Amino acid sequence: MEPSASPLHTVGTSPQRLDAREKVTGRATFISDLRVPGMVYTKLWRSPLPHARLRAIDTTAAASAPGVLAVLTAADLADCDRYFGPAYKDQPILAIDRVRYAGEPVVAVVAHSEREAAEAVTLLEVDLEELPAVTTLDEALAPEAPLLHETLRPAGHFRDLANLRPIAGTNICHHFHHARGAIDQGFAEAEVIFEDMFTFPMVHHYSMEPHVAIAQVGNDQITVWASTQHPFPVRKELAEMFGLPLARVQVIVPYLGGAYGNKSYTKIEPLVVALARKVGCPVRLALTVEESFKTVRRAAARVRLKTGVKRDGTIVARQCTAHYQIGAYADVGPRVAQKAGYTAGGPYRIPHLHIDTYAVYSNTVNSVAFRGYGVPQLAWAYESQMDIMAERLGLDPLDMRLKNLLRRGEVFAPGDLPIDADLPGDLRRAAAAIGWGQPLPRGRGRGLACVIKAPLAPSVASALVRMHADGSVTLLAGTVEMGQGARTVLSQIVAEELALPLRWVRLAQPESGTSPYDQATSSSRSTTLVGLALQAAARDLRQQLLELAAEQLQTHIAHLTLRDGGVEGPSGRLSYAEIIAQHFGLPGGELIGRGGYRGERGAPLGGVAPFWEVSLAAAEVEVDEGTGQVQLHRYISIADVGKAIHPQQCEAQEEGGVMMGIGHTLFEEMIYQDGQLLNPGLLDYRIPTITDLPGDLRSILVENADGPGPHGSKGIGESGLMPTAPAIANAIAQAIRVRLTALPLTPERVWQAMRGAQAHRTA
Amino acid sequence: MLPPFALEEPTSVHEALALRARYGETACLYAGGTELLLTMKEGLLRYERLINIKLIPELAGMALEDGALHIGAITTHRMLERSPVVQRHFPTVAEMAAHVANVRVREVGTLGGNLCFAEPHADPGTLLLVYDASVALAQQGGTHTLALEQFFVGPFEVALADDEILTAIRVPALPAHTAAVYLKYGLLERPSVGVAVAVTALPDQVQEVRIAVGCVGPTPRRLRDVEGLLSQKELPEVRATLDAAGALAGSAADAVTDLHGSAEYKAYLVGVLLRRAFERAYQQAIRGDVGDTARGRGTA
Amino acid sequence: MRFETQVTVHVPRQSVWDFLWDVPRLTACVPGCEAVEEIEPHTRYQAVVRDKVGPFTLRVPLAVEVLEATAPARLRARAQGRDAAVQSLVKVESTLVLVETSAQTTALQVSADVTVLGKLGTLGHSVIVRRGEAIVAQFASALQAALGQEVT
Amino acid sequence: MTDNRAHHGTATGQVLSIHVTVNGHAHDVLIEPYLTLIELIRDRLGLTGTKKSCDMQVCGACTVLLNGRPVSACTMLAFEARHASLLTIEGLAQGEALHPIQEAFIEHGGLQCGFCTPGMILAAKALLEENPAPTEEEVKHYMRGNLCRCTGYKRILESIMVAARRLAQTHNPGVLET
After folding, report:
1. CB atoms inside a 10 Å sphere around CB C10
2. What single-letter DSSP state applies at residue A529?
3. Domain map (residue ranges) of chain B
4. How many helices (H) and strands (E) does chain A have?
5. Within an 8 Å CB–CB cutoff, is residue D89 touching chain A?
6. Which chain B residue has its CA at the smallest distance from D131's CA?
7. What pLDDT, on the 0 to 100 scale, is given for residue D172?
8. Structure confidence at residue B290 (pLDDT)
9. Domain residue ranges in chain A
10. Is D2 part of the contact surface with chain B (CB cutoff 8 Å)?
11. Rounded to whole angstroms, how far apart are CA atoms A96 and A103?
12. Which of A112, B9, B90, D75 is paired with A35 by a 20 to 30 Å CA distance?
C-alpha cells in the first residue's frame, strides 16, 4: 500500500511521542520488566564500613541455604580482569582485599529467587578490619590523609583525558589546569577584587527505575540487557574484561526509567556477566533504591573564586580553584572536574583567567555523570559571585552581566568554537519575562543567572536507514530512549528527509551488535549529532532513490522531488515501493543509507565543541521571614535550542531540568555521618513533588537556527537545571538582603543567615 | 520483600484478645500496616504472625456520642478526611487527616494503627491532644479508657499491654467559643514540627488555651506550663506574652538535632507555629466558626 | 554521635579505678548488658548487649577491647559488634576520666562515640540519638549508685 | 540468625486462596500471607505495567486501584485484594481505545521516561472519580504522592486538568471503567 498523504514536514511540529502509547498503557518494556528463560537472581552483601581491610569471608552457611546456586567473592572471579572504570580502571567487580566505601559490594549470592538470595545474604560472615576513612573534602585533602588508591591505571577511553594528572601521595586523581592571559597582570589591573567560597553538596539522581541488568553468557558470547546510557562503552569494557572480540558482546538497551547520567558508562554490568559465567545461566541484578543511592551520586564541590573587576563592572581577571569530592572510585570524576573547569569563567569575557580543578577521592559513594556534568557546581559559584560584585559595586546585576557577556562570534578559548548564541539578547528576554526592575512587595526578590557548558567533544556517531520494500524505514542508531524523546525526534528528522509520514519510520532499540556505533547517549548530543548521522544516512538513501527513479522515469535527477513517500518528476510519479520493486525485479529487497558524524579534533580539551549549551534563568521568590521557607512564584528558563525539532518536548526537557534543579537548590542533600549515608531513601531524601511547582514556570525556546544539528538545532538536555541554584539564591539575596553560599538553601539555612545578618546589623 | 509470617483473622475483639494472649510478642496486630510493613521489609521487625483486625465490626465506624466523636480503631485517615460528620463537627480533625502523608497512605493507614505505632513524626496524636481525646483499651476483663496523653510513652512505645487492643478513640467536642488549629511544617516526607492550639475566647478575652507539640520530641505532648502563660488573660496581655510562650514551648518541646534540622531551629519553629496558630484560632474563636484548618506540609 | 556526662562520687579515685576492673559489677552498670566473659584480663572481653526501643529489639554480641588504661585516671575501650537479624553494626568507643576533686571525692567524666551502621537508621536518627543519650546517662548514674554503696 | 530462621519455620506453611478481579477478569490464586500486592501483580500475574521504585509508599510508581481507591502495591499485602476489584494500568484502556486521561497525557506531554506514568495515570483516575472538576490546587494536593523526575510536573498537571474537562463532557464517565 501507499504511505498515506498524512502531513509531512514534521520537523518543528510536536507530533505524539512514538513511545507514548506504550507508556500510558503499561506495555512499554523496561529492563526491570524483562524475564529471560532460566534466569536466576543475585543479591549483594555490602560493606557497612567506609574503609576496611577484608580479613575473612565465611560463606558456608549462605552457600548451604535453600535455593542458593553460588556464593561468590572477588577471589572466585580471578579468571578475568576484575577492574573497570572509564577514566581509571580502579573499581573492582567485587571488593578485593579492601572496601573503600560503605555500601561497596563484597559478596554476591546467586539463588533461584530474589527472596532466597536475600535471606542467604544475611547468613554471610564477613570479617572486616576497619581502616581510617575520609568522607569529607577536608579529610581527603589532609596532609596525612589515608590514601584510597596507591596506584592508578588509566583506562584510555576518552580522547580529552589523554593526559590524566593524578598527584602522587594524595587522594587527588586528576588536576586540571587551564589559563588564558596573565593572571597577576589581571589582578594588578583590577580596581576591586572579590574572593568568595561556595559549596555544593552530594546529591542523588533518583531515576525512578533503579539500576538493573541481566546477563547471559555462553557459546563464547555475552549478552547483556543493561540499564545503560552507553551501550558501546559498556561493550568495550566487557570485551576487555572478559577477553572477547567486540563482535561477541551484545549489549541490549530497552527503555530506561530515567537516567540523568546515573546510567552512564559501566556500573553493575561486569558483575552480572561475571556471575552468569560462573553459574552458567542468565543472572539478574535489580538494585533497590537504597542500593542505587549507594551506587551513584553527583560530585560535591567546594569552589573558591577570586575575581578582579573595574569599578564600572568590567571583569578583568578570575582565579578559580575548585575541588570536586568524588567517591571511592573515579568513574568519570576526573573528566567532570576537567570539562566543567574549562568553563569556570562562565559565558563572560575574562581576559585573564586561571583555573585549577581537582577530582578528590573519598570513602563515599561514587560520583558519576549527572546532568550538567560539573557545571552546576561552578555556575552556582560564579553566578552567585556576579550578584555579590554587582551589589558591592552598586550596579544592576542585569547590566553587569550584559557588560561582560560574550557576544556572538567572540572567542571563548583559542582554537575552540566561537560563541554561537546571542547571550545578551537571551538575557534581556529572561529579564523582560520576569519583569526585571519592576517594584516588588516586601519579602520578594528576583534573580538572574546565565551558564555555558561544553558538550562531549570530539565524539562519534554512525547510523543506518533501511528502507523496506514498502517504503517504510527502520532507523539503526545507538541512541538510548531514556525519556528525552530521542526515538521521536530522530524519527522526525528522517521522516523529513524522506518525505515519509512518521508512522512509517521506526527507530530500533540499541543493540551493540546490530546498531551502528554511537559514543554516548549523554551530553545533550543525541538530537544534534546522532541527528546529523541519521540525516546523512537518510540523504544517502534519498540519493539512491533519486538515481533509481531517474533511471526508471528516464529523466534527470534535477527534475525529481520526494513527496508523500514517492518520487515525482515531469514524466510521472513512482512510490518508493515501486522504485524498489522495479530495481530488484520483485516486491522485496531493501535500500540502505549510511551516515556518520565525526567531531573535529583540536581545541584546548582535544575536541572542538560542536555547539555551546547555554542556559539562562530568571526567578522570583518570596521568603517567609518567620520560617526561612522559600516560595518560588515565577521561574523563567531560556534555552537556546537553535531549532526545535519537537517544540513541546524541548519545553518539557527544560521544565524537567528546572524542577530537578529546584531539588538540589532547595532541599536535596546526601548526608554522611560516621562514613555512612544517613538518608538513602525517599523518607529522608526529598525530591521535588508536584506541590513544589513554581506558581508560573515557563520555558522560552530561542530559535536562531544557528546550531550544527539538523535544521540548525542544538542540544538542551541539561540546560534547565544549570542556572537554577544561583538564580534562586540571587532572588533570595534581593528579597531579604542575605547571601547564602552553601546549598541546599533549606529553610533552616535561610533562617540562620537571616539571624546572622540581623546580629550583624544590630552589632 | 517481607519475611514470612502467618496470618490470623479474628472476627471479634474477644477472639483477637485470645490470639494476643496466646501468641504474645511473637504476633503483632495488623490494621493498615503502612508503618508496620515498612519496618518489616527493612528486617527491623519479624513476627511469626500478624493478627488482622480489620474484619472486626466493633472496631469500625464513626459516630457522634453526646457531642463526642467516637472513632473506631480501624477508621482510615481518608474516612476521617471525607466523613461529613467529622467535616461538620470536627473540621480541624478532617483537615489534619487530609494532610497525613499521601493519599495512598491515607486510604490504608488507620487512626488506631497510627497512634499505636507511635512513630514520632506523625500528625494525629498532636492534634487530638488538644481535644483531650482518650483511647478505649480492651482486655479480656473488659474495656477501660485512658487519656491519650497517658497513652504515649516514648518513640514507638505506647501504654498498650501485650494482651490489650485499642478499640476506639474518643474525641470530645471543643467547649463553646473554642477553635482549634493544627499547623505542621517540614521539608522531608514526614513532618518535622507539628503544633496544635485550641483557643477559647471572647473578643479580647482569652479564657483557655490548649497547646500540644509533636514530631519534635519523643512523643506528642501537651505543654501545660505554656498554656498557663496564655489562659485567663486579656488579648493584649496574651499577645505580649506570645514570644515568651513560644520560647518556653520551644524548650519544653525537647527537640534533638537530626535529619529534620537542628534542635535549635525546631525549638524556634515551635514558637513561630505557636504564635501563628494562636492568632488563627483566636480569630476563629471570636468569629464563632469553630474548628478551621490544619495546614499542610510547609504551609505554616 | 558523641555523648557525654559527668557524675561525682564520694569515693577516692583509686577505689573508683579498682571498681572499674571489677568486671561483674561494672557490667551490671551497663544498661542491657547480659553475658560478659573475660578473654584476656585487662585487655579483651566478650559481652552481649540488648536494647529495646518500643517493639524494636537489638541484640549485639560485642567484642570489647581496652585501648588505654592509665591508672588511676583514664580508661578507654572500644566495643564493636553486629546484630545479624537487624543487619546493623554498632561501634562504641568510650572514655572514662577520673578526676580527683578531693581526697574522698572523684569526678567521673563519661564520654562515648557511638556509631550505628545499617538498617537501624530507618528508625529515625532522632530515636537513636535519644537512646544514646539515655544509655550513657543511665550508665553514669548506675556507676554512681554502685559506688555509693561502696562508701556505706 | 538461627533464631530468625526458627521464626520462619513456624510460619512458612500457610497458603491463602483468594478470589480477585483484575482488570475485569476473575482470578483464583493461592498466595502466601506475606506476599505483597506488587509481587502478586508483577511476578504471579505478569502485569509488569505496575512499577516498583521507592518501595516505601512515597513515590507512587506502584499505584494501583483497589475497588477504585489508590494504594501502594509495594507496601500492601496481596490478600487485601481478596474479593476486590483491582485495576492496573493494563486494564484502563478498552482494547485500543485509550482512556481520556491516557489521551491527555499523550497530547500534553505528561510523560517522558514513562516509569511513573502508570501510577500517575491511575492516581489521576481515582482523583477525577472522586472530584470530577478539581482546581489546580486540589490536583496538586491529591497528586503530591506521585513523583516524576523527568517532566517537572507542569504537563502532568495540564494533562489532568484537560482530562477532567473531557470526562465532564462525556455524560457518563463510567463507560470507560473496567
Report:
1. 15
2. I
3. 6-52, 58-171, 178-295
4. 18, 30
5. yes
6. B82
7. 55
8. 56
9. 300-456+605-762, 459-598
10. no
11. 14
12. D75
- The Cα A53–Cα A75 span in angstroms is 15
Residue C125: which pLDDT band, with cuts at 50, 70 and 90?
confident
Contacts of C53 in chain B (CB under 8 A): 154-157
Indicate the average pLDDT of chain A: 96
Per-residue model confidence (pLDDT) at position C46 = 93
Contact: B121, C124; criterion CB under 8 Å: yes
Please state, for a pLDDT cut of 70, what percent of chain D lies above it.
89
Percent of chain D with pLDDT over 90: 87
How far is the alpha carbon of B122 from chain C, nearest alpha carbon, in Å? 13
Question: CB contact, 8 Å: D8 with chain B?
Answer: yes
Which pLDDT score, from 0 to 100, does residue A4 have? Answer: 41
Binary contact (B107, D71; C-beta < 8 A): yes
Least confident among A113-117, B54-58, C88-92: C88-92
pLDDT digits (tens, 9 = 90+) for A75-131: 999 999 999 999 999 999 999 999 999 999 999 999 999 999 999 999 999 999 999
The sheet that has A125-130: what strands, in order across it? Answer: A98-99, A52-58, A125-130
Closest Cα of chain B to D123: distance in Å?
9
CATH number of C2-151: 3.30.530.20
Reading phi first (left if > 0) and then psi (alpha if -120 to 50, else beta), residue A83 is in beta
Residue ranges covered by each domain of chain D: 15-91, 100-173
Give the confidence band of C91 by pLDDT, cuts at 50, 70, 90.
confident
A345-387 per-position pLDDT tens digit = 999 999 999 999 999 999 999 999 999 999 999 999 999 999 9
Q: Which residues of B touch C (CB under 8 A)?
A: 28, 38-39, 42-46, 118-121, 154-157, 218, 256-260
What is the pTM for the complete model shown?
0.95
- Cβ of B6 within 8 Å of Cβ of D55? The answer is no
**Any chain A CB within 8 A of the CB of D61?**
yes
Q: Domain B58-171 carries which CATH code?
A: 3.30.465.10
Q: Is D4 touching C (CB cutoff 8 A)?
A: yes
- Starting at the edge strand found earlier in the chain, the sheet holding B68-72 runs B62-65, B68-72, B165-171, B134-138, B143-147
CATH placement of domain B178-295: 3.30.390.50
**Helices and strands, counts by H and E, chain C:** 3, 7
Minimal C-alpha gap between D12 and chain C (Å): 18
SS (H, E, C) D21-64: EECCEEEEEEECCCCEHHHHHHHHCCCCCCCCCCCCCCCCCCEE
For A399, residues 6+ apart whose C-beta sits below 8 A from its C-beta are A313, A390
**Domain at A300-456+605-762: CATH code:** 3.30.365.10
pLDDT of residue C149: 58
Nearest to B45 among C55, C124, C130 (CB): C55
Query: Do A300-456+605-762 and A459-598 show the same overall fold?
Result: yes
Burial of B139 (0-12, 13-18, 19+ CB in 10 A): middle
CA distance C81 to chain A (A): 11
ipTM of predicted complex: 0.95
Q: Please state which CATH number belongs to domain D15-91.
A: 3.10.20.30
Instruction: Report C:107-136 residues touching B (Cβ under 8 A).
Output: 119-120, 122-127, 129-130
pLDDT over 70 at D9, yes or no = no
pLDDT of residue C119: 73
Instruction: Name which CATH class applies to B6-52.
Output: alpha beta
Collect all residues of chain D within an 8 Å Cβ-Cβ radius of residue B1: 36, 39
CATH class for domain D100-173? Answer: mainly alpha
CB < 8 Å to A691, chain D: 140-141, 144
Strands (E), C12-122: 33-40, 44-53, 56-70, 74-83, 88-100, 106-118
**Max Cα–Cα distance, chain B, nearest Å:** 61
What's residue C120's pLDDT?
73
Grid coordinates given for D113:
521516561
- What is the third-level CATH fold of A459-598? Aldehyde Oxidoreductase; domain 4 (3.30.365)
Identify the band that residue B289 occupies on the pLDDT scale cut at 50, 70 and 90: low
